[in-house]
């Protein structure tokens, strides 16, 4: 599977679906979620909350609202909003997002740094965990993962793990 690293906003990449590193309640009050909700609309959060609780290690698909994507995958990296995350939760969330994207037969999924914002997971740790999970994953439909973040350190961490630096 092709892995591409992009510095920029997840809302501007060319992908079929984007991933929101969520909390189990589906509330979109921090980090990447705020941007997705602000640009895509309240209906994204409403639908995520309706599908809650979303356990860490699972994921749900919602509308992308006004965004150009076919949907938003909410993959919790924490149970409650602003709760600390962990490497294991990052792994589980990444795997759950990939599984759902593949099950829905999306070709390209964009994933931001998982658990690195309010979750507090060090970027290098999250980058390694995410890339390892992506490399282990055996897709049926999914062809490409775009790792995208506005944070230069996150982008550098992915590039380092992927041997691009």
How would you characterize the overall build of this protein?
InterPro entries: Macro_dom, Macro_dom-like. This protein has a single domain, classed as Leucine Aminopeptidase, subunit E, domain 1, CATH 3.40.220. The chain is built from 5 helices and 6 strands; from the N terminus they run E-E-H-H-E-E-H-E-H-E-H. Strand 3 and strand 4 form a beta hairpin. The protein is globular and about 40 Å long. A 6-stranded mixed sheet has the order 1-6-5-2-4-3, with helices on both faces. By secondary structure, it is of the alpha/beta class. The mean pLDDT is 97.
Task: Give the structure's gist in a few sentences.
With 165 residues, the chain is an alpha/beta fold. It has helices at residues 31-40, 42-51, 87-103, 123-136, 152-161; strands at 2-7, 17-23, 60-62, 71-78, 108-111, 144-149. It has one domain (2-158): Leucine Aminopeptidase, subunit E, domain 1, CATH 3.40.220.10.
List the keywords.
alpha/beta, Leucine Aminopeptidase, subunit E, domain 1, 5 helices, Macro_dom, Macro_dom-like
């Amino acid at each position: 599977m092709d892995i591409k690293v992009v510095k920029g906003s997840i809302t501007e990449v060319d992908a079929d679906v984007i991933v929101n590193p969520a909390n189990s309640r589906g509330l979109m009050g921090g980090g990447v979620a705020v941007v997705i909700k602000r640009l895509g609309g309240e209906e994204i959060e409403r639908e995520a909350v309706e599908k809650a609780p979303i356990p860490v290690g699972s994921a749900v698909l919602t509308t992308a609202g006004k965004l150009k994507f076919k949907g938003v995958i909410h993959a919790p990296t924490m149970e409650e909003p602003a709760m600390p995350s962990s490497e294991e939760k990052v792994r589980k969330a990444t795997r759950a997002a990939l599984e759902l994207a593949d099950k829905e037969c999306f070709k390209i999924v964009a994933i931001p740094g998982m658990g690195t914002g309010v979750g507090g997971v060090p970027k290098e740790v999250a980058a390694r965990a995410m890339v390892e999970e992506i490399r282990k994953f055996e897709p049926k439909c999914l062809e490409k993962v775009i790792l995208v973040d506005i944070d230069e350190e996150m982008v550098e961490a992915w590039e380092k793990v992927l041997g691009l630096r």
